[in-house]
Write a structure and sequence with these properties.
heterodimer; A: about 110 residues; mainly alpha; about 80% helix; about 0% strand; elongated; B: about 100 residues; Helix Hairpins; about 85% helix
């Protein structure tokens, strides 16, 4: 009984993780500049992969595997914001300008 | 239809969705237009690959795959940091817009 419930929960988690990954990819293709694309990629990327790791932890009966999945999620939550921030900072220092859609020009509007 | 069947079907659908996502990210990797976009696309590609291997773990039940997924995520983070440092050390190039 509880095993079936965990399997259904894992099915929901793995599907929603994949949908988050697909949304990140669509955002990467469609959004106008690097900063908005990073916004889509980092957030949805970590949620997508994290949900799939949660699904692995849900269906596993081995304690070591569950622990590794949880450690993987923790590592993802730790590393993805750092990578995104570092990349955005480096791109800004390299002269990459934000798109005009996200900047306010008060004089030459 | 038992819970195991539902799980296998959703893992199959998830693998298909992740493959489509990887194709879309490869489009951005090829188009660019700048180095920053390509680094971001590579980072997302490794993240999606880790998710794909996680979905394969669910599909096949071989829990050894989980270690590979975590290792890919680790290497992807390190390579993103290294490439961002390179982008930072390269300085202004004037290639954007």
């Amino acid at each position: 009984m509880i095993e079936t419930l965990l399997q259904y929960l894992a099915a929901v988690a793995v599907l929603s993780g994949a949908v988050f990954g697909l949304l990140a990819a669509i955002g990467i293709v469609r959004l106008p500049d690097l900063y908005t694309r990073l916004h889509a990629a980092s957030k949805a990327g970590v949620v997508g992969t994290g949900l799939i790791l949660i699904a692995v932890a849900l269906i596993s009966t081995d304690g070591a595997v569950i622990l590794r999945a949880i450690l993987g999620i923790f590592f993802l939550l730790l590393s993805t914001p750092i990578a995104a921030h570092l990349l955005a900072r480096a791109a800004y220092k390299a002269g990459e300008l934000p798109t005009v859609a996200t900047t306010i020009e008060d004089i030459d509007g | 239809m038992t819970g195991a069947d539902v799980l296998l079907w959703s893992a199959d659908i998830a693998i298909a969705l992740l493959l489509v996502a990887m194709l879309l990210v490869i489009v951005r990797l090829a188009r660019g237009p700048n180095l920053g976009d390509r680094i971001m696309a590579l980072d997302t590609l490794t993240m999606l690959a880790a998710g794909l291997i996680g979905a394969l773990t669910v599909r096949t039940g071989l829990e050894l795959y989980l270690d590979i997924a975590i290792a890919i995520a680790l290497v992807g983070f390190l390579s993103t940091v290294a490439l961002a440092r390179y982008l930072l050390s390269r300085g202004k190039t004037g290639e954007s817009r």
